[in-house]
Automatic annotation (TrEMBL):
Residues 599-721 are annotated as: Disordered. The chain crosses the membrane at residues 38-67, 118-142, 154-171, 178-202, 243-259, 280-302, 363-383, 430-448, 454-484, 496-521, 533-556. It is found in: Membrane. This is Amino acid permease/ SLC12A domain-containing protein.
C-alpha cells in the first residue's frame, strides 16, 4: 500500500535532513517494508517456537503496555486518512518489549530513563540469549546420532554451531529465518498432537508393540504396572517435603512458561499491529494452553514415577538390553546419580515407554533437537532487535555500529541475478546479531569449567531468574503504578488496550516477587538441587547483574564525563517518522543521534527532563536542547499555538494600520475638500465684495454725472440759455 503524499514528503525531508548533516553523528534506521512484515500466523509460530505454553497474566500485561506506549503527538486524520485540523496523542507500537515499558514506567526524567535503560540493557545484552538451550541441542544431537561418551567438548562444539547457524541465517536471509520459524512451529504442533493421540490411545489399552497397556500406565521393563499418577492415592506418594526443592523446580517450570514476550520485541515489524497483534497473541495462548494441558495428561498417564522406570531410562542411555544389578541398587540408594547416566526428558521417556528403548528414543532425540533449534532461531531473531533498540540509546560502546540495519547478502544476490522492478531489498540488524553471538560465546566459555548438564542448569535458571522473574516483576509493578497514577489518572481512557485491568499485573507481580526470594531457601537433604549447583548461586548472580547495571549507569553519568568527556553529558535523540499504513500509525524510520554535550545544570536531575518523542511535521524543535524543563510534545503544541497567535496578531495589526491609513487619507481628503470649499467661499465673498464696490463706484459715478449735469443746467439757466 503506497504512502499518502504528505507521508512521502515527510520521509523525503527526513532522508534529506540526515544526508545534509555535516556532523556525521545522525543515523537513519529504516523499518522493514510492508511486504516483509510479520503476519498473523508468523506471530503464532513465534510464540509456539519459543514456548509450549505462556502465562496469560503476563500476556495481558505486555499487551496493555505494547499497544499503549510510546505516544506521539500527531496530526489528526479523517476517516479517509486525509489530514485534519489539530493534533492529538497517538499510541504507536514500537519494538523493544520490556525496554519501552520500563522506560515509560520508571523514566520520569532523562536521568531516570537513562538509569532504567542501563540496568535493563546490561541484563539483556549479557543474559538475553538461549545459550543453555544450545547446550541441550548438542546433547540431543549426540544422542540422536548414537554417539556415547562424546564428552562435553563435542557438546559445546555443537552448541557453538547451533548459535552461529541461527545468527548467520537471520543476518544473511531475513525471510529465510522467518520461513524457518513457521516451518518448525508447524512441526512442533504436529509433534504435540502426536503425543496427545498416542498417549490417550495407549491409556485406553492399545499396545504399540512394547508390552501391553493396562488402564492408565504402560507396563515398564519389569512387566508390572507402576503406580498411577492420576490416582489420588498415589499421585503425591513420592513428593518432596522441602520448600527449596519446590522453589527450584517451579523456577525451571517458569522457564518453559516464558516466551509470551517474544512477539513484542519485534512489534514494529508486524503488519497492522493494533488490529491483528492482540488476536494472534491470544490465539497462540489458547492453542498452546490446550496442547500443553493435553500433553501433560498424556505424560502422566503413561510415565509413572517408579524406580524400575529409572532403570529403564538407564538402559536407554547405556544402550543395553539387560540391567546392571549393582547400578540399579546404586540408583535406588542415590537417585541424584541418574543425571550422570540419563537425561530425564519426559518426551524421550514417554516414547521409550511406549515403543521401547533403542531407535524410538533416538528418533525422539532428533525431534527434540530440531525443536530446540527452532527455539534458538526465534530468540535470536527477536533478541537482536531488543539489543539494537538498546544500542540506539547510546549507552553501549559503538552504538552507531550496533544500531544500524544492513542489506542482507540474499537481497544483493536477488538484485543481481533476479532483478525485479519495485523490489525493496530486505535488511537485517546484522551488527546486533553479532553482539548477540559474542555474549552467547562468552557465557559458553564462562561455564566451560562445569559439565554440560550443570552448565545447562545454570544458564537456564539464570535466564529464568533475571529475564523472566526480575524483569517481569518490575514490568508488572510499573504497569500497576501507571494504571492508577499514570498520565494524571487518565491512563485507562488513553490506553490502546485494556483487557483485564490491573488484576493480571497484580497476580503476575505477586508471583514474581515470591520467586525473587524463594530460591535463597536451601533444598532439603536428598534433593537433586543440593548436589549439582549451590542453591544461592543463581539468585545471587541475578541480583548482582541488576546492581552491576546501576553501577554501569553511575559510571556513564559521572566517571566517563569527568575522565574522558570534559564533564559533558550523554544526550540521546530519537526522532520517529510516523506514517499511516492500512489506517494505523506505524514507525517508518528513525533518526538516531547520541552525543556528549555540555549543558548547564545537567548534573542536577531536576533540571533535566526525560527524553520523550515528538513529531512536528517530523522535525524536532531547534531549541529542544536548551528547554529540557518542558516536555517536547508540549513545546511543539505551544510553539504552534504561539506561531498561530503571532500570525493572527500580525494580520490584525496590518489590518488596523491599513484602516488607520485609510481613515487618515479620508480625513485628509475631507480637510482638503473643506479647505477648497472655504477657499471657494472666500473667493465668492471677495467677488461679491468687488461687485458691490464696483456697483457703489458706478452709483457714485452716476451720481457725480447727474450732479454735473444739474450744475451745467444751472449755469446755463443763469446765463440765460
Amino acid at each position: 500500500m503506497p504512502l499518502e503524499q504528505d507521508d512521502q514528503e515527510r520521509v523525503r525531508r527526513a532522508m534529506e535532513e540526515v544526508g545534509a548533516d555535516k556532523t556525521g553523528t545522525r543515523l537513519l534506521v529504516l523499518n522493514v517494508s510492508e511486504s516483509q512484515k510479520l503476519g498473523y500466523w508468523t506471530i503464532i509460530c513465534t510464540v509456539i517456537n519459543r514456548s509450549v505454553v505462556i502465562g496469560m497474566c503476563a500476556l495481558l500485561v505486555w499487551l496493555q503496555f505494547a499497544l499503549s506506549v510510546p505516544k506521539f503527538l500527531l496530526r489528526n486524520r479523517n476517516d479517509d486518512d486525509s489530514p485534519a485540523e489539530g493534533e492529538s496523542l497517538q499510541c504507536v507500537p514500537r519494538s523493544g518489549g520490556e525496554k519501552n515499558f520500563l522506560e515509560y514506567a520508571y523514566g520520569s526524567n532523562r536521568l531516570r530513563k537513562l538509569r532504567t535503560t542501563c540496568m535493563y540493557g546490561l541484563i539483556y545484552v549479557v543474559l538475553g540469549n538461549l545459550t543453555g538451550n544450545t547446550i541441550a541441542f548438542g546433547t540431543y544431537c549426540l544422542e540422536a546420532a548414537g554417539i556415547s561418551g562424546g564428552g562435553d567438548s563435542l557438546t559445546r562444539g555443537l552448541a557453538v554451531v547451533c548459535m552461529t547457524a541461527a545468527c548467520l541465517l537471520h543476518a544473511s536471509y531475513r525471510q529465510g529465518g522467518i520461513y524457518t520459524i513457521i516451518v518448525i512451529g508447524i512441526f512442533k504442533v504436529c509433534i504435540l498432537v502426536a503425543i496427545i493421540v498416542i498417549g490417550f490411545v495407549a491409556m485406553a489399552g492399545k499396545s504399540f508393540g512394547y508390552g501391553s497397556a493396562h488402564g492408565e500406565t504402560i507396563v515398564n521393563a519389569t512387566s508390572q504396572n507402576g503406580p498411577s499418577n492420576l490416582a489420588a492415592s498415589t499421585s503425591f506418594s513420592h513428593a518432596k517435603k522441602d520448600f527449596g526443592s519446590y522453589a527450584s523446580s517451579i523456577l525451571f517450570v517458569i522457564y518453559t512458561y516464558s516466551g509470551n514476550e517474544q512477539p513484542f520485541y519485534v512489534i514494529s515489524e508486524v503488519i497492522r499491529p493494533k488490529k491483528i497483534f492482540a488476536k494472534a497473541s491470544i490465539s497462540a495462548v489458547s492453542l498452546t494452553i490446550i496442547l500443553f494441558m493435553l500433553v501433560n495428561i498424556a505424560y502422566l498417564g503413561i510415565v509413572s514415577y517408579d524406580p524400575e522406570l529409572t532403570i529403564q531410562c538407564l538402559s536407554i542411555k547405556d544402550s543395553v538390553d539387560k540391567f546392571n544389578p549393582n547400578l540399579v541398587n546404586d540408583v535406588i540408594m542415590d537417585p541424584t546419580r541418574i543425571r550422570d547416566k540419563c537425561n530425564l526428558d519426559m518426551a524421550t521417556v514417554f516414547f521409550a515407554a511406549i515403543f521401547g528403548p533403542g531407535l524410538a528414543s533416538r528418533v525422539m532425540a532428533a525431534i527434540i533437537a530440531i525443536s530446540i533449534f527452532g527455539n534458538v532461531v526465534v530468540m535470536t531473531f527477536t533478541a537482536s532487535r531488543v539489543k539494537q533498540e538498546i544500542a540506539k540509546e547510546g549507552v553501549i560502546p559503538g552504538w552507531r555500529f550496533f544500531s544500524r540495519n544492513v542489506t542482507t547478502p540474499w537481497a544483493h544476490l536477488r538484485q543481481r541475478f533476479w532483478p525485479r522492478e519495485g523490489y525493496e531489498p530486505e535488511q537485517s540488524p546484522a551488527p546486533a546479531l553479532l553482539l548477540h553471538w559474542i555474549f552467547s560465546m562468552i557465557l559458553l566459555g564462562a561455564t566451560s569449567g562445569e559439565t554440560a548438564d550443570v552448565a545447562y542448569q545454570i544458564l537456564v535458571a539464570l535466564y529464568a531468574y533475571t529475564i523472566v522473574i526480575l524483569v517481569g516483576f518490575f514490568t508488572a509493578s510499573g504497569f500497576l503504578y501507571v494504571y492508577f497514577f499514570g498520565e494524571d489518572g487518565h491512563w485507562v481512557e488513553r490506553s490502546g488496550f485494556n483487557w483485564g485491568g490491573p488484576f493480571p499485573a497484580a497476580i503476575y507481580a505477586a508471583i514474581c516477587a515470591f520467586f525473587i526470594f524463594a530460591p535463597f531457601v536451601p533444598p532439603g537433604e536428598g534433593s537433586p538441587y543440593l548436589n549439582e549447583v549451590k542453591w544461592f548461586i543463581v539468585p545471587t548472580v541475578g541480583l548482582g547483574f541488576m546492581v552491576l547495571g546501576y553501577v554501569y549507569y553511575l559510571g556513564l553519568m559521572h566517571v566517563v564525563p569527568r575522565l574522558f568527556m570534559k564533564n559533558k553529558v550523554l544526550i540521546a535523540d530519537r526522532e520517529a517518522i510516523i506514517v499511516r499504513e492500512h489506517g494505523e500509525y506505524v514507525v517508518y524510520l528513525e533518526i538516531v543521534d547520541a552525543s556528549w554535550e555540555t549543558r548547564p545544570g545537567s548534573a542536577n536531575e531536576s533540571d533535566v527532563e526525560m527524553h520523550t518523542f515528538q513529531v512536528k511535521d517530523n522535525k524536532k524543535e531547534e531549541n529542544n536542547k536548551e528547554e529540557d524543563s518542558k516536555e517536547e510534545d508540549s513545546k511543539e503544541e505551544d510553539s504552534k499555538e504561539e506561531d498561530s497567535k503571532e500570525e493572527d496578531s500580525k494580520e490584525e495589526d496590518s489590518k488596523e494600520e491599513d484602516s488607520k491609513e485609510e481613515d487618515s487619507k479620508e480625513e485628509d481628503s475631507k480637510e482638503e475638500d473643506s479647505k477648497e470649499e472655504d477657499s471657494k467661499e472666500e473667493d465668492s465673498k471677495e467677488e461679491d465684495s468687488k461687485e458691490e464696490d464696483s456697483k457703489e463706484e458706478d452709483s457714485k459715478e452716476e451720481d457725480s454725472k447727474e450732479e454735473n449735469i444739474k450744475e451745467e443746467e444751472d449755469i446755463k439757466e443763469r446765463k440765460g440759455y
